[in-house]
Structures are given as structure tokens and as C-alpha cells.
Amino acid sequence: MTAYDTVTEALAGLKERGYGIDFNLAFDRVICRQTGIFLYPADFEIAETYRFEGDTDPGDENIIYALASKDGNIKGVLLSAYGVYSDGMDTDMIQKLGTQHG
Question: What is each CA distance from 66 to 34, 57, 58, 61, 93, in whole angstroms?
Fold first, then answer.
């Protein structure tokens, strides 16, 4: 796995490696609002996870998930605030994302 120093660097590096779709969390899936592409937890794997901790500002704490559909045809990233928060997420999504970091 590649090491990145910043969120911006990680997003650019992942995009260069084919993770070009920007996903957002929805209740029971991840969705790309620009294209309408969506994946349920059973439809994707988390290929890589990058955690960034803000040195001075807790608001700078983020996790980047590199997601790939099980068939490998859809690849994108999900940028999430540090930790997995259950507000507005279904149980399967919490489990899927929550097992990727400690």
C-alpha cells in the first residue's frame, strides 16, 4: 500500500490508479451524485484505507476508503470524517466501514 502525507495527495494518487469516482455515504449504500452510480455494502470491497489525523485541528481528521465493486469494474473513493458515525447509516454499512479501522 502506498503511503501518503496528505488527504489531497492520497486522493490524487488513488485517482491516478483508477479510483476516479467520488462516492458519498447514503443510508444503505455509497453513491456518486454526479453519475448516479451506487453500491450496496455487499457489492463492494474496501481495497485500501488511509487515516489522516490533524495535528492541531480535530476537523482535519479523515479516513479515505478506496472502494472497488466485486467485479472490479467500478472503483472510487469515499472520504469520511474520522471514525464511523451511525447517524443516517444502515447497520450493514456501519459494519462494512467499521471493520476497516480500529
Answer: 18, 24, 22, 17, 15
Task: Assign 67 to helix, strand or coil.
Answer: strand
Grid cell at residue 87: 447517524
pTM (2 d.p.): 0.82
CA-to-CA distance for 75 and 20, rounded, in angstroms?
Answer: 6
* Digit-coded pLDDT (tens) for 32-63: 999 999 999 999 999 999 998 866 555 567 88
- Closest to 63 measured CA to CA, from 42, 41, 39, 81: 81
In 18-30, which positions are buried (b, 16+ CB within 10 angstroms) versus exposed (e)? Answer: ebebbbebeeebb
Q: Give me the residue label for grid cell 448516479.
A: 36
* Number of H-type helices and E-type strands within the chain: 2, 6
Parse the chain into domains and list their residue ranges. Answer: 7-98
d(CA 84, CA 43): 19
